[in-house]
Amino acid sequence: MSTRVAVPSGEVAPEAATRTTALLCVAAFMTMLDLFIVNVAFESIGQTYSGSSLAGLSWVLTAYIVVYAACLIPAGSLSDRYGRKRGFLVGLGVFTVASVGCAVAPTLGLLIAARVAQAVGAAVLTPASLGLILSVLPAERRSGAVKIWATSSSFAGALGPVIGGMLAQSSWRWAFLLNLPIGLVALAVAVRLIPAAAPSARTRVPDPVGAIAIAVSIGALSLALVKADDWGWGSARTLLTVALALAALGLLTYRVRTHPAPVMSPRLFRTPNFAISNITILIFTSAFGAVFLSVSLWLETTADYGPLRAGLSMLPGPLVVPLFAFLTQRWAASVPPRFIVSVGFAIFGLGSLLLATQGGAHYATDILPGWIIIGVGIGIAMPTVMGTATAELAPADTATGSAVVNTARQAGYAVGIAGLVAILGGQSVIHGDENFRDGWIFVTALVLVSAVTALGIRQQSSRQTETR
Questions:
Q1: Cβ–Cβ < 8 Å for 270, 392
Q2: DSSP H helical segments within 172-315, as ranges?
Q3: CA-CA distance, 232 to 214, in Å (whole number)?
Q4: What pTM does this model have?
Q5: What distances in angstroms separate CA 453 from CA 78, 336, 339, 450, one per listed residue?
Q6: In which domain, by residue range, is 413 found?
Q7: Which one of 153, 213, 343, 345 is least enclosed by Cβ atoms within 10 Å?
Q8: d(CA 344, CA 328)
Q9: CB under 8 Å to 447, separation ≥6 — which residues?
Q10: CA distance 88 to 389
């Protein structure tokens, strides 16, 4: 006679935990996959929309990232209040439909508009997926599941360029249509697999002004960096755009402190490690976003690789990320998190510095060694810094808190890509290696700063670990 093990309301049974984790990771993987696919499809998209500059094309990436970042926190808060399963299903549905819009866009402007809609869907499903991991899985499975969830983006980084390169050989539009069957299957499985837990609370809709302030601050800073080469770094337009970004950041801070339903709760930043981990993540992902796009552009311009060959050439770096993430986690329990993260980012910096010192156009000797070292560093550091940022959150704040973490990630991507575009220039064709070296020095400086800020991460107490 079999015995059923009772599980708390809202949790899945232990035997369903693996399937639930896999489903939620697949959905999160989808939102990151298009980011990496677009990197390697840049040249093909530019050929479709003739006359587009690098600065103009960069908004296919940046618009997605900025809107994603702006919507993550209010979407996470709404998921906490009104149901994470509902948020996950709505977000996945919007993302899937918008992907079809991207695939059929007749102009660059409409492609960017569809990317904005895609970003809204991604912003809803991402914090809901991590919040579901933290709320429906048994306590003993949560820490490992969060690290798997965080590492899934590295698989998107490995597969995205290859898939994008393969599809771009025919048409880059297939890269977006790929989301349609995946999204439909994931929706059908999620309806049956994920339990419908009661919402944490039913309160007011999070402050819309705060959400707009996030979008304006990130978007204005990105715009200033992208257009500074055309406008002039000291021009009135550049300075006014930077001032707008700072004013929006100040407004966000004020609204968070004074609004009755702020876009993010001030108590999140009273949680040990939350603030410093998010600062570290923001700086690190700035470096990550810049180095990924720069290597892709180097392969397609300096090395003159086609999309498929460029995608395959990018595979080794992301491929070592999950390997070293797994190896690191086997001994990470006895090492303070700040040392793991700092060492990982320092190794990343060594790899990007090696790229900056390359003096030729040979992939095997000038790019591959540094690219693999960068992957090693990311694998060591990323799961730990992501896990540390969310480990001490109260259950009621899991989706909102994870949204803040992912907002830091996306803001970092936007700033890093915009900074790289500013260094490379706004021209549609990039000439020479000097700009790439400057870009990789920029990446090295960013990631070494993140290695320093990571030293501020404190060791999680055993009592806190037990309560999670």
A1: no
A2: 173-177, 179-193, 208-231, 236-258, 274-301, 307-314
A3: 25
A4: 0.75
A5: 31, 14, 11, 5
A6: 15-195+263-467
A7: 343
A8: 10
A9: 283, 284, 287, 345, 348, 349, 352, 377
A10: 21
Rounded to an integer, what distance in angstroms lies between the CA atom of residue 1 and that of residue 3?
7
Q: Residue with structure tokens 């603030």?
A: 275
Torsion (CA) 442, 390, 406, 330 in degrees, nearest 10: 60
Per-residue pLDDT tens for 64-105?
A: 888 887 787 778 777 777 778 888 899 999 999 999 999 999
Residue identified by tokens 């006679």 is 1
Q: Say if residue 178 is in the same domain as residue 214.
A: no
More confident residue, 160 or 348: 348
CA atoms within 13 A on the CB side of 239: 3
Of 111 and 326, the one with more pLDDT: 111
Q: What is the dihedral of CA 153, 376, 166, 36, to 10 degrees?
A: 40
Cα(403)–Cα(69) distance, integer angstroms: 9
Q: Which residue has the tokens 């949790």?
A: 11
Q: Which of 152-166, 208-222, 299-313, 344-358 reaches the highest mean pLDDT? A: 344-358
pLDDT band at 8 (very low <50, low <70, confident <90, very high): very low
Q: Is residue 200 part of a domain?
A: no
Answer positive or negative: Cα dihedral of 94, 319, 419, 52.
negative
What is the percent of the chain where pLDDT is above 70? 85
Q: How far apart are the first and last CA of the chain?
A: 33
- In this structure, the answer to whether residues 275 and 301 fall within a common structural domain is yes
Q: Which residue matches tokens 């609370």?
A: 201
Kindly provide the b/e burial profile for residues 244-268, where b requires at least 16 CB atoms within 10 angstroms of the residue's own CB: bbeebbebbeebbeeeeebbbbeeb
Please name the amino acid found at residue 251: L
pLDDT of residue 6: 41
Answer for the pair 28, 130: CB distance below 8 angstroms, yes or no.
yes
Same structural domain, 337 and 437: yes
Distances (CA, A) of 121 to 90, 273, 306, 328, 359: 7, 29, 31, 33, 43
The reply to whether 169 and 79 lie within a common domain is yes
Tokens of 122: 């991604």
pLDDT in tens, 215-274: 888 888 878 887 787 788 889 999 999 999 999 999 999 998 898 888 777 878 777 788
Give, as one character, the DSSP assignment of residue 58.
Answer: H
DSSP assignment of 290-314, as one string? HHHHHHHHHHHHTS---HHHHHHHH
Q: Which residue has the tokens 């260094």?
A: 423
- Closest-CA residue to 145 (of 155, 131, 156, 124): 131
